[in-house]
Amino acid sequence: MQTSYDQIQHFISHAPWDATVVKKQVALNVQRALQPIRGEQALMIIDESGWKKQGRNSVGVARQYLGSEGKVDNAQVVVLGVLSKAHYASIIASGLFLPDEWTKDTNRMTAAGVPQEAQECQTKPKIALSQRCGETIEPLSSACSSDAPLRG
Hints:
With 152 residues, the chain is an alpha+beta fold. It has helices at 5-13, 19-34, 100-103, 106-112, 124-132; strands at residues 43-52, 62-66, 71-85, 88-97. The protein has a domain at 40-137.
């Protein structure tokens, strides 16, 4: 079956689908794939990644620290949750960081299509903790037990 660029773009941008359901399924699939691998316990690695951007219209774009550049620049930053075991790793959670200049401007967020429930200010550690505690990915809720270590 051949799929055109326009069909994929329509699916991503306009067709009704829930990204949360897809992310949860990916997390389950990765967990299942890592289970039979011998060795250390699977770890959830939390890190941020950024992309240098021009303009101001993409959601979350603002002047902020960009690690790959080693300086403050115009960028989007996302907090990633990566499940890793042995030499295997997969991104299973992500959350776009919205700087203050975005969260303080509800008209801008609404115009850009940011869902109402995502229009609150969240620090990067809060985004990471929600990923660790399974608020974005249910299968990881066991990682929130009081004996689960946080290392940074």
